[in-house]
Design goal:
By secondary structure, the chain is of the alpha+beta class. It folds into 2 domains: 291 residues, Zn peptidases (Aminopeptidase), CATH 3.40.630.10; 116 residues, Alpha-Beta Plaits. The chain contains 11 helices and 20 strands. It has a 6-stranded mixed β-sheet, with helices on both faces. A 5-stranded antiparallel β-sheet has the order 12-14-10-16-15. The radius of gyration is 25 Å and the shape is elongated.
């Protein structure tokens, strides 16, 4: 029996138990601000990996509203480390799940439910992969120090988790970090993530001058008119040729229609892949700060525009480290009959936070659709998040053989046994 056949047979036997673990995970509401639910899921996860020899550290988030991050460790003999990254939280509150009847439900090859693809299915994928390595590549399983790192609050961008991961994955000893967000697809071809956009969020506040809209209109400086002008300028920074987008998502202003409005606000985000474009765009947004062009007719009083940088997550640009790991998995894919292509993804993940310290590859989870969606319509135009059961075994095979190849080269250099 070949190693490929041995792995396929093992995974087929393991799949029912793995899906049962997924069912238990999906049954726990782990909305980012449901601290008790997130912690309950964290302990369930730790208990599952305990059977593989992992010990658990529960690390409080720097924000007390969020649950504990979980770091699972299985020490190896070689001094080499591999990080496997997931998160515990989802975007669905208990009320939303109840209102939309959004719970574990299997329909043929689809399993619906909160987190089935984002990212509880990814956590189960990690478990399957490690079980398989223990079975078919015990020398590598024992040699590597495995770090399974689970973010309690990825959906709300808790940056402290990135620092925690890097503290547990020393740069010189870490072969790579694999992030188990859902697999990308190009038709039926698997896509692994080698880069992600960075994101900065801003608040724009315009202070004008109020006036009676009938008798003193000429004395007023209309904050809504000014913010409309500012928004047009901000949106105009978007440049699809540079993969740069600026999106104004929230606008508020005014109080009553017989008053020239004195205040207006907008909130927006900016995203870009490469650091040069990102930095230029950030400074371009901040440059709107200062006196506006909307002025009172009688004395020239100018609206004042204030731009605040609220939060930012740096880009994960295309880089040699990620490309090297990707090529390993692409080559492995060819040997087992799977076509694998690289993908640059606009959304954020924990990969943005750790790529600066260790080579990182993302999209290692199973495939599904409708992440972050809980609604379902009778006409089928809206559907809930689901994971495709048929993708678990092929993706687990790619992950197992990819990890074997990634680890073997380093173990050979250390004169340690191969699989």
């Amino acid at each position: 029996m070949t190693q490929d056949q041995q792995l396929s047979g093992f995974l087929e036997k393991e799949l029912p138990a793995s899906l049962e673990l997924l069912r238990q995970m999906v049954g726990i509401n782990s909305f980012s601000i449901n601290k008790a639910g997130v912690n309950r899921l964290g302990h369930l996860t730790a208990d599952a990996f305990k059977s593989l020899g992992f010990t658990a550290d529960f690390v409080p988030s720097t924000n007390p509203a969020y649950g504990d991050h979980v770091i699972l460790t299985r020490l190896g003999t070689s001094g080499c480390t591999v990080g496997l990254i997931t998160h515990l939280d989802t975007v669905f509150s208990e009320l939303e799940e109840q209102q939309n009847n959004f719970a574990w439900r299997r329909e043929e090859d689809r399993i619906y439910g909160p987190g089935t693809m984002d990212i509880k299915g990814g956590t189960v994928m990690i478990y399957m992969v490690l079980r398989a390595l223990q079975e078919i590549a015990p020398a590598i399983f024992e040699a590597i120090t495995w770090k399974v790192c689970a973010n309690s609050s990825e959906e709300v961008l808790s940056h402290d988790f990135g620092e925690l991961c890097l503290a547990h994955m020393p740069c010189q000893q870490t072969l790579g970090a694999l992030v188990f967000e859902c697999e990308g697809r190009a038709g039926q071809t698997a896509a692994l993530v080698v880069a992600r956009k960075g994101r900065a969020t801003f608040r724009v506040t315009v202070e004008g001058r109020a006036a009676h809209a009938g008798g003193r209109h000429h004395h007023g400086a209309n904050a809504i008119v000014q913010i409309a002008c500012t928004i047009q300028g901000l949106a105009g920074l978007t440049d699809y040729n540079k993969d740069l987008t600026v999106n104004v998502g929230v606008v508020n202003g005014g109080t009553v229609i017989n008053r020239v409005p004195h205040i207006a606000t907008a909130e927006l985000e900016m995203r870009a892949f490469d650091k040069e474009t990102y930095d230029w765009a950030k400074q371009s947004v901040l440059a709107f700060h200062g006196p506006g062009q909307v002025r009172a007719a009688d004395d020239g009083y100018a609206c004042q525009v204030t731009v605040e940088l609220l939060h930012e997550t740096p880009p994960w640009p295309r880089n040699p480290g990620s490309d090297r790991i990707f090529r390993i998995f692409q080559e492995v894919g060819r040997t087992i009959g799977q076509t694998v292509v690289p993908q640059q993804r606009g959304g954020l993940s924990d990969g943005n936070l750790i790529c600066r310290g260790v080579p990182t590859l993302d999209g290692m989870g199973p495939w599904g659709e409708n992440d972050h969606c809980s609604e379902r319509s009778l006409d089928g135009s809206k559907d809930q998040e689901y994971v495709d059961v048929t993708t678990f075994i092929p993706k687990a095979k790619l992950n197992v053989f990819g990890l074997i190849k990634l680890c073997e080269s380093s173990l050979v250099e250390s004169n340690l046994p191969k699989a």
